[in-house]
Amino acid sequence: MRVGLLKEGHIYPKKERAIRDLLRKRLMLVQQRTSHILSFQSLYNREKGSRFPGSDVKRLREEEIESLFSDGYVCLSAQANVSLIRFLTKKITELETAVLGCMKVLPEFVKLKTVPGIGDILALTISLETGDIRRFPKVGKYSSYCRCVSSQRLSNEKKKGENNRKNGNKYLSLLLRYPG
User: Fold this and answer.
1) In terms of Cα–Cα distance, which of 87, 90, 65 is closest to 78?
2) How many separate helices (H) and strands (E) can be counted in the chain?
3) H-helix or E-strand containing 74?
4) pLDDT, tens digit (0-9, with 9 covering 90-100), for 117-127
């Protein structure tokens, strides 16, 4: 550090860490719910040969599944998916309510809300994962921190290798590519 080779790391403020971690847990639950929705849709497509919209899967009840499938094992599998989807949706809603109830409005939050498609939870998550935006001197540094910049090295338009593509914030990368 005396020579200046190591860059200073960012330590997130302790009072906001718990909320940020709760939002990370929410993101994990949203990913799990999505995998169960896709699993149900795949099962339905295999059995019936047609699509079943994801929004309709979220509204399904376990009792309604018996009328959709004739085979008992397929029905049991579908009921497991729907049961987990309903449970995860309930937990996601609980986490969102808790986070929105205790969080003060940050200036970054207000600016992020002006972007179309970014709601309260997404704006809060991005602002908490980013921290103080002034620590990024240029836009490119922030883009790199979000893992939105390609990490491959090219020479004469040929791929010569990849740099460390795991640098930066994996949660921002997930949010900006697949906002839940």
Assistant:
1) 65
2) 7, 2
3) helix 72-102
4) 888 888 888 88
